[in-house]
Write a structure and sequence with these properties.
By secondary structure, the chain is α/β, with parallel strands linked by helices. It folds into 4 domains: 84 residues, no CATH class; 229 residues, 3-Layer(aba) Sandwich (glycerate kinase, domain 1); 184 residues, Glycerate kinase, MOFRL-like N-terminal domain (Rossmann fold); 67 residues, no CATH class. 42% of the residues lie in helices and 19% in strands.
Length: 621
């Protein structure tokens, strides 16, 4: 894997890199270590040197290492930097259960995206001048704040805003999932609950993640509040994942039942969240900037907890305070591409066709002056609206990595933009588990190994970049030298093409697919399931995977053994999209992950734990 030209001693090389990186990080704070792999012409590792480089934070250490290496007169050097986490020589005791560690890491990630710290860092309130500063904008406060919100995280967000700015708040309305207040009370999460004397009215609705009358009543109350504001008022809008369902506002004559039908059609036929919210923005009043327009001439400050890859303001909660770019034409194209146009409710189909026709009848701008004038009007229309992302999946993944390091693992955040079919992601990460276990063996990595090469080819074909493969191999080599196990972390959101009639969610489906592939990969001459210490966890950050009350599931070798004992056909359950039923049967449901509603939503978290083999098992020569 590591091919280089040796032109100096390993110690001299590592000292050089350490000096260069220290020069670039002199003002930074947290710990990091650089590991330098020096190889000969045959690709055999001749030295692996650890260099402490002081304290770093926030900055991408891998890029720093590359900058340092670029200054050294050597053609090929393989180096890796472990961001934020100091790997110490003390060996990890390998008597813990990776399944329990994975659940611990996941729950730590969720705690990291609770609203308090994120919002407090964004809002700078000066009590002496009654001024609120948010990035480069200032707001003069004089008991002129109104608060609205919708989503799975806005209860805690509203608590923080009221704690900071309460004396300037007149009133507010938030729409949250059914039962959230009770669950926060039961779990003693008082910082996620409004104070007893709060000025903010709470609506609970959208039971089972579906639009209902309670959510609709909340949206009408929010619309009425916004439409009564004046130019002296400030509307603070709190948005998070789940906001689209919790604030339904269909254009007449579309009904709530038809909205639900449209959502089911899209999700069951593989629409991703961007496609789903693109359609919603075009058929609902408050979405696609509609709420901000209702609030004019008031100023609008929108605080957004991102639940979509790339943090697109206009798509999170369907962009209630962001101008809408996709047109009805885009919606119609999505419906045709997914093959559901003929099953779309008639009122929605006719509405989109009528709006598309109206757009076609608008004269196009033909002169440079008219285009410039239109841009000017557009800027004026949105000049009093500020949209700020206060948190996202990356924050959760970094917190997960820090916790994994504390537990004694060498963590690697592989990606925060994980996408694809849920079961394909599960298949892929099971193959990655085997790849890592083979890389732990020095013989398998130092020479040609056809099985390892085939696995690498399969991983790349499945979407894991070649550069990521190299980083994984490098991390495994470091973990081998310091006697650590590996923890791979990924964040993002998958989809499911529903073909069966079972019960489940995309995360449970990923976990079931991973179990199927693990059984296939580890029933070989080189390794059996019983000898393998690894696990795969996939969970939804909001604590609700699909229409179940579980966050997701975790699978390991014990789960596979139990499945065999019960003589269950995992493929049958996967084909019927019935993952929840299978996990409920095995081990008394112990492989299901239950967190209850978490009060946040930053998409999904995937964790792959792979323990270092205690003995070499691979002898490819």
């Amino acid at each position: 894997m590591f091919i280089g030209t040796l032109q100096c001693s390993a110690e001299k090389m590592s000292m050089f890199l350490g000096r260069k990186i220290f020069q670039r990080t002199v003002n930074l704070r947290q710990k990091a270590s650089l590991y330098t792999n020096i190889t000969d012409h045959g690709g055999r590792l001749v030295s692996n040197v650890r260099t402490n480089i002081g304290h770093v934070s926030g900055l991408d250490m891998y890029n720093i290492a590359n900058l340092a290496v670029s200054d050294f007169p050597c053609r090929h050097i393989s180096s890796s930097a472990v961001r934020f986490y100091e790997v110490v020589p003390k060996p990890k005791e390998n008597n813990t259960d990776p399944k329990l560690d994975a659940a611990d890491v996941f729950k730590t990630a969720i705690r990291a995206v609770r609203p308090k710290a994120m919002i407090e860092s964004m809002l700078q309130y000066n009590q002496l001048t009654s001024t609120l500063k948010v990035e480069d904008k200032y707001y003069k406060l004089n008991r002129n704040i109104y608060v609205v919100g919708f989503g799975k995280a806005v209860l805690g967000m509203a608590r923080v805003v009221e704690d900071m700015l309460g004396k300037h708040i007149n009133t507010g309305i938030i729409s949250i999932p059914q039962g959230l207040q009770e669950e926060m009370t039961d779990s003693q999460n008082r910082e996620m609950l409004l104070a007893p004397n709060s000025k903010i009215v709470v609506y609970e609705g959208a039971a089972d993640n579906a639009v209902d009358e309670s959510a609709y009543e909340a949206s009408k109350a929010i619309q009425n509040l916004a439409s009564d504001l004046t130019e002296n008022d400030l509307l603070i809008v709190l948005c998070s994942g789940g906001g689209s369902t919790l604030c339904p506002s269909p254009h007449p004559p579309i009904t709530l039942q038809e909205l639900n039908c449209m959502t089911r059609l899209l999700t069951r036929n593989g629409a991703n969240i961007k496609e789903l919210n693109t359609v919603r923005k075009n058929i609902e009043i408050l979405k696609g900037g509609g709420l901000a327009l209702q609030a004019k001439p008031a100023k609008v400050l929108s605080l957004i907890l991102s639940s979509i890859i790339g943090d697109p303001h206009d798509l999170i909660a369907s962009g209630p305070t962001c101008p809408s770019q996709p047109t009805p034409h885009h919606c119609i194209e999505i419906l045709f591409r997914l093959g559901i146009m003929d099953r779309t409710p008639e009122s929605i189909r006719k509405y989109l066709e009528r709006e598309a026709k109206n757009i076609n009848s608008i004269p196009a701008f033909t002169t440079q002056d008219s285009v410039a004038e239109n841009a000017k009007r557009y800027a004026l229309l949105w000049k009093d609206v500020q949209n700020i992302v206060v948190g996202n999946n990356s924050i959760a993944c970094e917190a997960a990595a820090e916790r994994a390091a504390e537990l004694g693992y060498l963590p690697l955040v592989l990606t925060t933009v994980l996408t694809g079919e849920a079961k394909e992601v599960g298949f892929l990460y099971a193959k990655l588990a085997k790849f890592i276990m083979m890389c732990f063996d020095r013989h398998a990595c130092s020479g040609h190994n056809s099985e390892l090469s085939m696995l690498e080819t399969s991983l790349v074909a499945g979407g894991i970049k070649k550069t990521w493969i190299n980083t994984i191999c490098n991390s495994v080599d470091i973990a081998h030298n310091v006697n650590r196990d590996i923890c791979i972390i990924a964040g993002g959101e998958t989809v499911v093409h529903v073909r069966g009639s079972g019960i489940g969610g995309k995360n449970m489906e990923s976990a079931l697919a991973a179990a199927i592939q693990m059984k296939e990969e580890f029933r070989t001459k080189t390794m059996s399931v019983a000898e393998t210490r690894m696990c795969f966890l996939s969970c939804d950050s909001d604590g609700q995977d699909g229409l179940t009350k579980m966050a997701g599931a975790v699978v390991d070798q014990d789960f596979l053994i139990k499945v065999d004992e019960y003589e269950l056909d995992m493929n049958k359950y996967l084909d019927d999209n019935d993952s929840y039923t299978l996990f409920s049967h095995v081990n008394g449901g112990q492989n299901l992950v239950r967190t209850k509603l978490t009060g946040t939503n930053i998409m999904d978290i995937v964790i792959l734990m792979v323990q270092k083999p205690r003995q070499h098992k691979y002898h490819p020569f």
